[in-house]
């Protein structure tokens, strides 16, 4: 079954709903607070029961609705253990497996680099890559414990070793692209393909990106599952 991909235009964030084909159970990845009612409507319309809310990291560009969704649905909040989000009852480690539905499993892959705790999630040949790997690019590495060296190693050793056909569902896109594949990214990613570790580190150091506008609000809120900003 294909993931349901939803988009927040203000932050260019993708949210994903995964539905278990053998039950009503569903999982949501990286929900955004201002889309709470939209996401709940999708879940209700399709007759789903939300069991897990997953975060790929503590976001700096939007506030999560994880806390509100947990309160309204009873779903478990699942977060990377290295991101400092203590209210979540499930603190994920590399190699963990999240079961849902009758026989569904989501593999947890720790991919530090964008932030120290960043995680990717693998389900049925679909990789939900957060800000670690984008379509044709990658997340920045200059705050929240980020490291260009760590990101290069995460992608090279953990993501680019997946099957070529693995679909890549990014956490953001700014160019109207919605999905890619590991094989395509390994060969064509503008920042990572055919580039040495040293070249990648130099490239990332030269980006000189502006500070995220919502960082001072979003990061503290997201470390509390967005509860201070929930509706």
Automatic annotation (TrEMBL):
<dbReference type="InterPro" id="IPR044528">
    <property type="entry name" value="POD-like_MBL-fold"/>
</dbReference>
<dbReference type="InterPro" id="IPR036866">
    <property type="entry name" value="RibonucZ/Hydroxyglut_hydro"/>
</dbReference>
<protein>
    <submittedName>
        <fullName>MBL fold metallo-hydrolase</fullName>
    </submittedName>
</protein>
<dbReference type="InterPro" id="IPR001279">
    <property type="entry name" value="Metallo-B-lactamas"/>
</dbReference>
<dbReference type="Pfam" id="PF00753">
    <property type="entry name" value="Lactamase_B"/>
</dbReference>
<feature type="domain" description="Metallo-beta-lactamase">
    <location>
        <begin position="12"/>
        <end position="172"/>
    </location>
</feature>
<keyword id="KW-0479">Metal-binding</keyword>
<dbReference type="InterPro" id="IPR051682">
    <property type="entry name" value="Mito_Persulfide_Diox"/>
</dbReference>
């Amino acid at each position: 079954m294909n993931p349901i991909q939803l988009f927040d235009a203000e932050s260019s964030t993708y949210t994903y709903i995964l539905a278990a084909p053998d039950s009503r159970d569903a999982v949501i990845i990286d929900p955004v607070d201002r889309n709470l009612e939209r996401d709940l409507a999708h879940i209700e319309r399709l007759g789903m029961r939300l069991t897990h809310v997953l975060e790929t990291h503590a976001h700096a560009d939007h506030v999560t609705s994880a806390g509100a969704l947990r309160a309204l649905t009873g779903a478990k909040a699942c977060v990377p253990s290295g991101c400092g989000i203590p209210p979540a009852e499930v603190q994920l480690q590399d190699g963990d497996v999240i079961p849902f539905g009758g026989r569904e499993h989501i593999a947890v892959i720790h991919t530090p680099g964008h932030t120290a705790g960043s995680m990717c999630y693998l389900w049925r040949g679909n990789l939900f890559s957060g800000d670690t790997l984008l379509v044709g690019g990658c997340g920045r590495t200059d705050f929240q414990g980020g490291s260009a060296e760590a990101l290069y190693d995460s992608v090279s050793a953990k993501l680019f070793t997946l099957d070529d056909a693995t679909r890549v569902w990014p956490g953001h896109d700014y160019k109207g692209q919605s999905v890619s594949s590991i094989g395509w990214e390994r060969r064509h990613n503008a920042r990572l393909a055919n580039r040495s570790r040293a070249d990648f580190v130099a490239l990332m150091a030269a980006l000189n990106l502006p500070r995220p506008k919502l960082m001072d609000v979003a990061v503290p809120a997201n470390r509390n599952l967005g509860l201070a900003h929930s509706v």
